Amino acid sequence: MACAARYASRMNRRDAIRLLSLAALACGAAAKKTTTMQTRPIPSSGEQLPIIGLGTWQTFNVAPESYAPLEEVLREFVSLGGKLIDSSPMYGRSEETVGDIADKAGVHEKLFLATKVWTSGKQSGIAQMADSMRKLRTKRVDLMQVHNLVDAETHLATLRAWKKEGRIRYLGITHYTSGAYGQVEAMLRKVPVDFLQINYSVGEREAEKRLLPLAREKGIAVIGNRPFAEGALLRRLSMKPLPDFAKEIDCTSWAQLLLKFVVSHPAITAVIPATSKVKHLRDNMAAGSGPMPHEALRQRIAASVTG
Questions:
Q1: 3 vs 268: CA distance, rounded Å
Q2: Kind plus residue range of the DSSP H or E element containing 131
């Protein structure tokens, strides 16, 4: 811009304004390019999914009179390139909150809605999933997951039928504790699914041993939950300086560094940090753009956190 201004002094007013405008557009385009949210393909379809999603556990379990901050969060999430928003009937009013504010903001069509079934018995599962759709204000859910493997085979049979009917687009299973990994692995080997949602972070790396390689081998998309180990990592790191190497991958906060560690694993499709604050949402979303750490840098990140 400074260079353009020097040349502008030698030109007539019309040419100078044109040159400055073109320079501003070029700068804006460059800035936009560096902040574009990255996407990853869903293996079973090739559909691209933005790598930073939004979780709703605790944060969206609020009464309607407390919607205002979350309306701002959801609008900003979409404006920054977000799509995947994950919920569950286990999360109190979270599904209803998502449905209400997405409807009010007019962003339903821009979201990739994921929720879960969390009950036993075929009819109970059908009733619960229908209720989730009502709360989310949609006739079709993008991803329905069996929460924590509760009666998984029963619900997956229903979901396969629903997928054929177009009531859901993808089906999957979830868990959040390493103690259940044996069951999760057995299910992945036995039953075809589109998605696995599992806990994965610098502080919880057990999924690297068997589940993530297995998902990659079988072409299963992976959503990482608990990327901050339920906030424990950020609390522990709050007084620790960000390492200098964070600049190499355009990270300006620990949250961004932790999220880039998760999404840089080759088996991970997306990660779903939860927040009710726009400031934190923007910080999280920034982790979806710019360079990602290679394996050596991932190990440096892990060492800087655990060391």
A1: 43
A2: helix 122-136
> What's the predicted TM-score (pTM) here?
0.88
Mean pLDDT of 142-168: 98
Whether pLDDT at 25 is above 60: no
**Residue 146 corresponds to which tokens in the numbers above?**
């069996």
Look up tokens 């990602």; give the residue. 292
> Exposure of 68 by Cβ count < 10 A (0-12 exposed, 13-18 middle, 19+ buried)?
exposed
Interatomic CA distance for residues 98 and 240, integer angstroms: 35
Query: Which amino acid is it at 171?
Result: L
| Phi and psi at residue 198, to the nearest 5° | -145, 155
Nearest Cα residue to 53 out of 244, 208, 210, 197? 197
| C-alpha to C-alpha distance for 114 and 215, rounded to whole angstroms | 19
For residues 137 and 95, what is the distance between their CA atoms, to the nearest angstrom?
9
Name the helix (H) or strand (E) containing 2. helix 2-8
